[in-house]
Amino acid sequence: MILADGQILWNRSLGESYRCMGISVQTGYAQAIPGQFVMVKVDDGYAPLLRRPFSIHRLIQDGEKVTGIELLYKMIGPTTNQMGSMITGDSLNLLGPLGRGYTLPAEPTRVALAGGGIGIAPLIFLAAHMLQKGYDPDLIRVYLGGRSAPDVLCVADFEKMGLRVYTTTDDGSAGEKGLVTEPLERALAARGGQQLYACGPVGMLRGISALADRFQVACQVSIETIMACGMGACMGCVVNSTDPLDEKCRHACLDGPVFEAGQIILEHC
Question: What Å distances lie between residue 188 and 58, 80, 193, 259, CA to CA?
Answer without folding.
Answer: 27, 36, 7, 21
